[in-house]
Design brief:
Blueprint (H helix, E strand, L loop, with lengths): L1 E6 L3 H13 L4 E7 L2 H10 L4 E5 L4 H4 L10 E4 L10 H30 L6 H19 L8 H4 L1 H8 L3 H18 L2 H8 L9 H15 L1
Parallel strand pairs: 1-2, 1-3, 3-4
């Protein structure tokens, strides 16, 4: 769920925004409302919003200080009683912010799952693996590309380009990180995680798709 801060002096602005968020079926909850620069500053001392909606006529006092950190996720809206607050270009920006928030949430979940299994992020291969899982997730569930069963063809090239490495280096590093995980892990936890009935080292592909399935079931 994306958490929003609303900055406005108008009650009607907030009411209209809440209604339009619901009408557009946006996965956003208004967690805080501020009607002044002082209130907004107090809220931001305790809360980091994923998105900020602000009445456009109130923008000027905020541009120079407290909202600078949130400039990429701030959506100015113009209130008119007979027109929508959220227009088509605003909706595109909001959906982009929601998508980025969801991707970051998935990335954090991937890291937690790998750490739970026993992977250590002091190894480059673990970082490559985490990125490979995220890329696989994006291809299948965000971009809806073709199936990514062939990691060497469909996934590893993206990771190799990101890190300026060869595909062989990415695959080899992930294999080494998996070897280290298997040597150092809690075997009972590993077998339970993968539903193995005996001691068995999972392949990187098994790790990737099992982690993705765990994340999907938890959402």
């Amino acid at each position: 769920m994306v958490k929003a801060l609303v900055i406005t002096e108008m009650i009607d602005f907030n009411k209209k925004l809440t209604n339009e968020l619901r009408e557009n079926k946006l996965n956003i909850v208004v967690d805080a409302i501020a009607s002044s620069k002082e209130e907004a500053s107090e809220v931001l001392d305790e809360f980091s919003p994923d998105i900020v909606f602000i009445d456009k006529k109130d923008m000027q006092p905020y541009n120079i200080d407290i909202l600078r950190k949130y400039s990429d996720v701030t959506i100015p809206l113009t209130y008119r009683p007979t027109r929508h607050l959220i227009r088509s270009n605003d909706l595109d920006l909001i959906n982009d912010i929601i998508k980025m928030h969801d991707i970051q949430t998935v990335k954090l979940s991937i890291v937690k799952e790998l750490e739970y299994i026993g992977y250590q992020f002091k190894y480059k291969g673990t970082h490559y693996l985490a990125d490979s899982i995220l890329e696989t997730y994006l291809q299948q569930y965000v971009r809806h590309d073709t199936m990514t069963d062939n990691l060497q063809t469909n996934v590893y090239p993206f990771i190799a380009k990101k890190y300026n490495k060869t595909i062989f280096n990415i695959k080899s590093s992930i294999g080494k990180a998996t070897d280290c995980m298997y040597c150092d892990c809690n075997m009972e936890r590993l077998n339970d995680y993968f539903q193995f009935n005996y001691d068995f080292k999972p392949t990187p592909k098994q790790v990737m798709f099992t982690v993705i399935n765990k994340i999907l079931r938890s959402n």
